[in-house]
Amino acid sequence: MKKIVIANWKMKLGLTESVNLAKEYKEKFKDFDLGEVVICPDFVSLNEVGKTINGSSVSLGAQNVFWEDKGAYTGEVSARTLKEVGCRYVLIGHSERRQYLQENYEMIHKKIKEVLNQEGIVPVVCIGETAEERKTDKRDYVILEQLHQALSGIDIMGDQQIIVAYEPSWAIGTGTAIEPSEAEYAHKIIHLALGDLFDNRIVEKNIRIIYGASVSSKIVKDFAKLDNMHGLLVGTASLDSEEFYKIAQAIVE
Ligand code: PGA
Questions:
Q1: Which atom of ligand 1 is closest in space to residue 233's alpha carbon?
Q2: What is the SS3 assignment for the chain?
Q3: What value does the mean pLDDT take over residues 211-239?
Q4: How would CATH label the architecture of 4-252?
């Protein structure tokens, strides 16, 4: 599987800004085929950004999804609609949603299930510990618990994919990534836990583990060669197309 670099634009850009940045991405990644590149604008911008990058090597992703297919769920968006506007990826359970909207792993589990049901759209499942959990030595337990709650009982069929994004939430948006050795250790635990949940063949062929939190072009080289490092989820640095391009190039090399 190719490495993947996902840009999470969060709620930082309006529609016009998103389309303009998408145009820059399309141009920059014109000849980029060593890895996959995904941009996740807000819901309102998905359709226009999708049209902008149509036919290019940049794929579209959403920042959230609901767990039902259709119905009276005011304000929510279904995986079916995300597919309809061309999304190939969707972030699920980002730490900011867990922090500000009380999203929990029961909901995250249901969202993963629904997204896999729709086929052709890949869930990017976010996990990671808080500062408090790290300080009190609970990190390993928290990561394992999150993975089990999110993925127990999930079936991965054929060439369906899942991406697990390890994002220590205490380092998100701070400008300082964690030590590469700490990321490598966390990815190793995740890899082992996935081995308990799925057949080894599936772990190797259908699941990627990526890192996110304060990734920049300055530190990316130290992360590129780590074991079980299949890509990156990038927030702040993804708002600058040149900086993001440098990050993407360094991780796929
Ligand atoms: P950051 O955000 O790169 O700004 O730390 C990463 C994320 O929240 O996905």
A1: 9
A2: CCCEEEEECCCCCCHHHHHHHHHHHHHHCCCCCCCEEEEECCHHHHHHHHHHHCCCCEEEEECCCCCCCCCCCCCCCCHHHHHHCCEEEEEECCHHHHHHCCCCHHHHHHHHHHHHHHCCCEEEEEECCCHHHHHCCCHHHHHHHHHHHHHCCCCCCCCCCEEEEECCHHHCCCCCCCCHHHHHHHHHHHHHHHHHHCCHHHHHHHEEEEEECCCCCCCHHHHHCCCCCCEEEECHHHHCHHHHHHHHHHHHC
A3: 97
A4: Alpha-Beta Barrel (3.20)
- Whether 148 sits among the annotated catalytic residues: the reply is no
Mutating to test ligand 1, I would choose from 215, 223, 244, 251 the residue with most ligand atoms within 8 A of its C-beta, which is 215
The mean per-residue pLDDT over the stretch 120-134 comes to 96
pLDDT exceeding 90 applies to what percent of the chain?
Answer: 98
Give the predicted TM-score (pTM) of the model. Answer: 0.97
Q: Which of 94, 109, 187, 230 is catalytic?
A: 94
